[in-house]
Amino acid sequence: MDGWQVHLEKYSVRGFRSLADVTDIPIGGPTILAGPNDGGKSAALNALAFLLDSHVLTEDDRSYVSGESGGRCATTEVVGEFRLDHWEQEKLCQPALLRLRRSADADLVPRYEIWGPVPDDEDLRDLAGKVVPELKELAAKYGIRTTKLTKPQILASLVDYGRQHSSYAGWSGMPPALLGRLPRIAEFAGQSAPEEAIRSVLSVRFKNYLAEEDVQGRVRQLETDARDRMTIEAKPLADHIVERCPDITSVTVESEVSVTPALRSVSLRLERASGEAVRLDHSGRGSTRRISMAVWEGTSELLAEPAGSDDDPDVEPPVQVIIAYDEPDTHLDYHFQREVMEIIRRQALATHVNVVVATHSMNLIDGVDIRDVVLLHLDGARRTVMQRMGSADHSEFDRHLGAIATAVGLRNSVLLHERCFLAVEGETEKLAIPILFNLSEGMSLQAAGIALWACGGNDGALQLASYLHKHRRSVMLMIDADSERKSRIFRQGNLVRHFGQDTDKITRMLGQRSGADELEELFDDETWARTANEAWPRDGVWTPEHFADHRGRKKFSADVEQMLKEFSSHHPSGKPEMLWEVAVRLDRPEDVPSELRGIFADLRVLAG
């Protein structure tokens, strides 16, 4: 990573909206955040902006937690894992790998901290909020000379002293010098005005400008001049205090001045070749879209090579820039979606630029390496969970793409062109079937031309299946053997209403051949025990007998889930996750239950 500056590699979020506890979201080139609406994609981008000091935390950002004071979590935090090159390690006196977090409690006041040695003296643990007189007093206490030193220099000396006098590691105040080295973030939303896009990218360049040494010198000089001027202005007040208080012999007023320039707004003025002024708010969507596209494309050059990015070891390396797109393909047709993807590719080619994109677009999802795709969706508790493919294996590629395509939903192109349609009951089957089919048949559902969707207790899903069947499309409905008596929509009369005399040909009852009631029951006790020991360990070892005891009772899956919750410290959040853990741990086609393999073979015939 030579030539990068404080490079953010991944981040974790706790207590931010639906992101109650999501770990290791990667920062790639680009990273694609996929998933359904309200799954946490925009929250993930906002949490990243909060880490990089570009998002102001509000009460609504704090995760809702039932039972806690005010209904909100006690702490919101985003932890970033950074890599520093040799220049940064030397100049910032930090290790090559750095963990930094930004957090806030109920008061919404954010604080930066780094993980490392914690000073033994409590006075040295939180220095950022102290004023100059307090810092000078501490420096004198520990024999640190402060003559002609600026506040950042005094702080750096105290932080270094505290690190050298510590007995254990933990979170403590971040050295101020690190703040100016953090990555810059440029944020673009699909529905935002072009002015917002320009302001975002210019803000990045503005921060780089302010970080230049000569500019910093002028700012410090301005602060010094202002501080001296305020001392002169305060002299009559100090003299008046001495005059009115005989017991006081001397009064000195010391002012702390901080000049923090900001890029407040950007105006975009346009004029046509005819001389006519252009008002964006009165322009058509096409004109606004072309202008926005030009702005996004222009950022590639504007952010490509910031000042100072050469090989001179004494020259500060460029600051990492993270471009965050929130659904940039919104309301764009296919042609413009392809253009957006090309723009993102070019931007990510710059050595110091990374791109994170939240999107529904399969064009964007298909356009990157599958390892750079993160799937975010809500679990049963309305909390965002993350799935990510960590293997470059081809079968893993297809398996994961199947999960993503399912989360995005069936597109018109799928409905028009896929050869076979498989309807399953709910979320559990939606997650597990693509993995099991891939392992059994050696190809993904997509490669076999099979589209999958979950009925989810919705009669409309059966109406869609009925429509496709009437138009001579191949359809299969796969449901648990016990569903007919437990669910209204899967009762025989309702199925006949949709599929008529073809009901028995279209419907597959899972477990009917094996004497089981549901999908989970098809997996043998040894498979369940092996999965449980790896995914949900307990005190002792899970044995096949633990699972055999629940067969033949009221509901195998519910009983197993309850058992795992009672006896495992880390238990599944629900049935979908429980069976997903089973499926991803199978290694051979023979590991897939034989009844399922038979159904998959029938699907291949239908799709062929």
Describe the protein's topology.
Layout: E1 7-16, E2 19-26, E3 31-34, H1 41-51, E4 76-83, H2 86-92, E5 97-104, E6 111-119, H3 132-141, H4 151-164, E7 166-173, H5 176-179, E8 184-189, H6 194-211, H7 213-244, E9 270-271, E10 277-278, H8 285-302, E11 321-326, H9 334-349, E12 353-358, H10 362-366, E13 373-378, E14 384-388, H11 394-408, H12 412-417, E15 420-424, H13 427-441, E16 450-454, H14 459-470, E17 474-480, H15 483-486, H16 492-499, H17 503-506, E18 507-510, H18 525-535, H19 544-548, H20 556-567, H21 575-584, H22 594-607
Parallel strand pairs: 3-12, 3-13, 8-11, 11-12, 15-16, 15-17, 17-18
Antiparallel strand pairs: 1-2, 1-4, 4-5, 5-6, 6-7, 9-10, 13-14
Explained architecture:
With 608 residues, this protein is α/β, with parallel strands linked by helices. Helices cover 41% and strands 18% of the residues. A six-stranded antiparallel sheet has the order 2-1-4-5-6-7. Strand 1 and strand 2 (19-26) form a beta hairpin. The longest helix has 32 residues, at 213-244. It is elongated, with a radius of gyration of 30 Å. Residues 390-408 have low confidence and may be disordered.
